[in-house]
UniProtKB/TrEMBL annotation, chain A:
Keywords: ATP-binding, Cell cycle, Cell division, Cell membrane, Membrane, Nucleotide-binding, Transport. Homodimer. Forms a membrane-associated complex with FtsX. PROSITE patterns: ABC_TRANSPORTER_1, ABC_TRANSPORTER_2. Part of the ABC transporter FtsEX involved in cellular division. Important for assembly or stability of the septal ring. PANTHER family: CELL DIVISION ATP-BINDING PROTEIN FTSE (PTHR24220:SF470), IMPORT ATP-BINDING PROTEIN (PTHR24220). The gene is ftsE. This is Cell division ATP-binding protein FtsE.
UniProtKB/TrEMBL annotation, chain B:
GO terms for cellular component: cell division site; membrane. Signal peptide: none annotated. It comes from the Bacteria. The keyword Transmembrane applies. Keywords: Membrane, Transmembrane, Transmembrane helix. The keyword NADP does not apply. Coiled coil: none annotated. This is Cell division transport system permease protein.
Length: 226, 312
């Protein structure tokens, strides 16, 4: 599914923010990504959702060597990745429903199907009464749920979330994690960057731990223990 | 509910809020207005030239000038050498008609009456052209149906009807065709310039939109949008603005043409060409805003795709 081999990333002429990263994520796996602020979690996620190309090393995604993928092939690959951005990245001029509908519309779904599916998932995340609300009128937690609904609406093969529970209370955070678990059981590969140790302990999954730009894979049993 | 949502589906990129949108509407209105007037002018000149061309081609005009005759003019002091006697104008016209009707290639020859001549000269001389004291030439309208030996005919006319000149309209027709060609070229150049200005306006507007909404475009890319998907957002926006501006420009152009036609009707003995447009010519004018919108669409697509190619 995903393989990083000796990957490094630097911005401009600065020193590397990610150094010699190597790991493999099997299809349908679930990983937490941990590390202190500035450790490189967001940079690693950006490489995984194809926002950046690495400075060195080889990334293999869905069986494709990313160094050989052309620009024209990127949209098809990106549509198989769902991303929950740390700042939600909702479009302010669109309603909650239209925000969630974006991935479906890009994939060419009909408007009728799009409206039906988006309404359903927004009801599932508890926003059935806010279908036409603009993001600016929603609370931080509600915006986060819209962002999560958008990331999973087209059943991605890989789901990446950057602090998805950062702005919600523990109850909603737990509910969102159960949603990710459901997707994981359906075969979606999930990577969640978080600082929330309670959730990490509650859901026993291996960790990708970053420290100073270097990665350590911590198995699930060790994560429970540690 | 679903139908209501479909009807109100907004653009993914908030282009409607951009100030460049208003600018593009008025620029397009101005360009369609100018292009509409240029097209109407070219069509009017074409019509006028066609009417003249069909009226002049396949014909000759013989003019017989009024010359002093022994009966009509007696000088106070006799000249040292007596001039040859000149026949009266009507006799010379009859002689010319006889020669013309017997010439090979001539289908018919008809002498215009003095009233006809006065009517032709009225735009230049006014109602005074009908004054019988004015020495007016007589004109003979000749219709040909084959090649005519113009040089031979001129010689025979001059000997039989002194004061006769023959005009085969060749110079007129050449000038007319050259003038029409020049007008068409000027109209084409004007439309090309207007189109060029329109293209530049759209390029500016689209580039501004891409710069303002760069973060949205990047987000859409990360979510899997193709360049073509993003270009379609701009195309819809630009076509909407262009159509709105184009309709305003077309309305102004039509109002101007109707106003000019109305003003031209008020002129006595007008020298202006007929400014009436046929139905198909109005329809051609109606296509100008659509052409502007199509040009805007293609320009927006090209600009967006070219700009996005440079993005990672």
């Amino acid at each position: 599914m995903i393989r990083f081999e000796h990957v490094g990333l630097r911005y401009g002429v600065e020193s590397e923010v990610l150094r010699d990263i190597s790991f493999t994520l099997t299809p349908g796996s679930f990983h937490f990504m941990t590390g202190a602020s500035g450790a490189g979690k967001s940079s690693l996620l950006k490489l995984m959702y194809l926002a950046h190309r690495p400075s060195r090393g080889i990334i293999t995604l869905f069986g494709r060597d990313m160094s050989r993928v052309t620009r024209a092939e990127l949209p098809e690959l990106r549509r198989q990745i769902g991303v929950v951005f740390q700042d939600f990245a909702l479009l302010d001029h669109l309603s909650a429903l239209d925000n969630v509908a974006l991935p479906l519309r890009m994939a060419g779904a009909t408007d009728t199907d799009t409206v039906e599916h988006c309404t359903e998932i927004l009801r599932w995340v508890g926003l059935g009464h806010h279908l036409h609300a603009k993001p600016s009128t929603l609370s931080g937690g509600q915006q986060q749920r819209v962002a999560i609904a958008r990331s999973v609406i087209n059943r991605p093969r890989l789901l990446l979330a950057d602090e998805p529970t950062g702005n919600v209370d523990d109850g909603i955070g737990m509910r969102l994690l159960y949603l990710f678990e459901e997707l994981h059981k359906l075969g979606t590969t999930v990577v969640i960057a978080t600082h929330n140790e309670t959730l990490i302990r509650r859901f026993n999954h291996p960790r990708l731990h970053l420290d100073g730009g270097r990665l350590q894979v911590v198995p699930a049993a060790a994560a429970r223990g540690g | 509910m679903a139908l209501a949502l479909l009807r109100r589906r907004p653009s993914d990129i908030p282009l409607a809020r951009d100030p460049s949108g208003r600018f593009l509407v008025w620029i397009t209105a101005l360009m369609v207005y100018l292009a509409g007037l240029a097209l109407a002018g070219a069509l009017t000149v074409s019509d006028m030239a066609r009417r003249w061309d069909s009226g002049l081609a396949g014909g000759l005009t013989v003019q017989i000038a009024p010359l002093p005759t022994s009966a009509s003019a007696t000088p106070m002091v006799p000249p040292p050498v007596a001039p040859l006697p000149v026949a009266p104008l009507d006799e010379r016209v009859e002689a010319a008609l006889t020669i013309l009707r017997s010439a090979p290639g001539v289908k018919s020859a008809r002498a215009l009456t003095s009233a006809d001549t006065a009517r032709l000269l009225e735009p230049w001389l006014g109602p005074e052209a009908a004054d019988p004291l004015l020495p007016m030439p007589r004109l003979i309208d000749v219709v040909t149906d084959g090649p005519v030996d113009v040089a031979g005919l001129v010689d025979r006319l001059k000997s039989a009807a002194p004061g006769a000149t023959l005009d085969d309209h060749a110079v007129w027709l050449a000038d007319l065709r050259s003038f029409t060609g020049a007008v068409h070229l000027a109209a084409l150049a004007l439309v090309a310039l207007i189109g060029g200005a329109g293209v530049m306006s759209v390029v500016f507007s689209v580039r501004a939109g891409l710069a303002i909404h760069r973060h949205v475009v990047e987000l859409l890319h990360l979510m899997g949008a193709t360049d073509r998907y993003i270009a379609r957002q701009f195309e819809r926006h630009v076509v909407g603005l262009s159509l709105r501006g184009g309709l305003v420009g077309l309305g102004l152009a039509v109002a101007t043409l109707v106003g000019v036609r109305h003003a031209a009707h008020g002129l006595r003995a007008s020298l202006l060409p007929d400014l009436t447009l046929a139905v198909w010519q109005w329809a051609a004018l109606g296509l100008v805003p659509l052409a502007a919108a199509l040009l805007a669409l293609l320009t927006a697509r090209w600009t967006v795709l070219r700009t996005l190619e440079a993005m990672p």
